[in-house]
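Could someone model flavin-adenine dinucleotide with this protein?
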Amino acid sequence: MITSPFWTDQFPRPADLPVSTELPSHVDVAIVGSGYTGLCAARVLAKSGASVAVLERETIGWGASSRNGGMATPGLKQGLSKIYKKYGPEKGREFWQASVDAIDLLEDIVREHAIDCDWSRSGHVALAAKESHLSDLESYADWIKSELATNGYTDRTLPRLKPKVIPVGSYIIVTEPLSSELQDELSPKRRMYYDTKRFINYFRLTPDGRMLWGGRNDLSVDLDLEESSAILQAQLTAVFPQLEGVPLTHSWSGRLGVTFDLMPHIGKVDGVWYANGYSGHGLSIATYLGTELGLLISGQKERSPFAEIPHQTILFYRNRPWFLPFASRYYRLLDWIN
Ligand SMILES: Cc1cc2nc3c(=O)[nH]c(=O)nc-3n(C[C@H](O)[C@H](O)[C@H](O)COP(=O)(O)OP(=O)(O)OC[C@H]3O[C@@H](n4cnc5c(N)ncnc54)[C@H](O)[C@@H]3O)c2cc1C
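Reply:
Sure, complex below.
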């Protein structure tokens, strides 16, 4: 079993990517981090005529952006009804619309740059993990109809930003390619699936017909990859007993940037703009907020709802998220009870 992401193993980065180790003497905008957020902000700024440098500590896209499940779904990590309750219907609609626009934006970028990434609008399915969760999903569906509603690698470079984002681990396993009959049985429409637990599981088939299964049973960022693959495989075979004994080929992890209100944020600290906090739901939203950031910095946009909500932290959290083991136990208990 390989303990690195399936995606970069199957589709290695081209050796001739135009990267530079020399820092330019002057740029209009320097961007720290080359995931979706950083690259999308850079794209917009460069289009507006600014000179831009993207600074990356590892290699391009090294963080969550090359480690995720590849599932672009609407909405934000925080539930929409809670968002409406907290920020009111007007802002609530803006946040929902942004999450839908984010998927169109992602599609536009894939088309404009002819990115060969098996993009498809396959739909997604939210699965009630327990019978008692079903009524919540039903009322959510009714509520959506009635409305017509359409990062975790932050370090101490900005000490005032660190306490606003909690790095949380997310883990994935991938099986060997499955027979086409088994693929049709497990996912006839090749949709993206996630369930309703706090310790969420999500799954999909990869373009070459493997089962990709993700989740966590712990919030730590450094769970051993053999150990995490055993936990994930047990979850997988509990749902799909047909996959008992199917060998795993990959097991990897990445960090999510989770916020205390589960909302993504745009802001400015000590003169530096940031966008983060997708809380595990960032494939399209990070693309969107990175783009928003570029538009705000270059003056092509004056406001963003993601910059207008308070970005909370808690007392005594500065660097080490000491509360995560307690939070893990608490959420496991809630999942067990409810
Ligand atoms: C296992 C996993 C599965 C996921 N699955 C999904 C999914 O299916 N759907 C979905 O919507 N979202 C998913 N996500 C979340 C999604 O991948 C992220 O929200 C998104 O990629 C965040 O993009 P980003 O550009 O903000 O951060 P990242 O892609 O993490 O990029 C941050 C970059 O900053 C660099 N960096 C940090 N500090 C410095 C520094 N001081 N100097 C230079 N460089 C620095 C890091 O090396 C890193 O490359 C998943 C995440 C994980 C980890």
